[in-house]
Amino acid sequence: xxxxxxxxxxxxxxxxxxxxxxxxxxxxxxxxxxxxxxxxxxxxxxxxxxxxxxxxxxxxxxxxxxxxxxxxxxxxxxxxxxxxxxxxxxxxxxxxxxxxxxxxxxxxxxxxxxxxxxxxxxxxxxxxxxxxxxxxxxxxxxxxxxxxxxxxx
Length: 153
Hints:
Layout: E1 7-13, E2 18-21, E3 27-40, E4 46-59, H1 60-69, E5 75-89, E6 92-106
Parallel strand pairs: 4-6
Antiparallel strand pairs: 1-3, 1-5, 2-3, 3-4, 5-6
C-alpha cells in the first residue's frame, strides 16, 4: 500500500485567527499566514528573504481547536491542500488561493509547550444489561518457562 501524502506548509500566524460559521453552521477558521523564505549563497550561508503572505482556512473541529489554540505570531505546521479560486473585485476577475487545512499544530522545532495527555472527553456511559458470561476455563497443565534462549534485537 502506498503512503497517503498531502501538501504541507510551515510558517507563522500573521493575523489574529477568526472563527466564523457557514450558512449551514459549519465552523470556519481563518487567518493570514506568513511563510519565511531564504536563499543559500555561494559561500554556503543563507540570506533571509521577505516572507510571503497567504490565506489559511480550516473547518469543523480543526477550526474550533485552531481558534482556541493559535495566536498571532505562533509558528505552525499544517497539512491540507491549496484551493485556487476566482472572485470579482471592482468588475475585474481576480485569481486567488488559500490553504485549506486538514490538520495543523504548533511547530515543535520553534515552539515550547507542555503536552496534556488527558482524554479530551469521556466516552458516554451507557447502561447495558448484565449478561451471564461463560466461565473461563484454564488449561489444567501448569505453564513452563521456555528452554529456548531469548534473542534481543
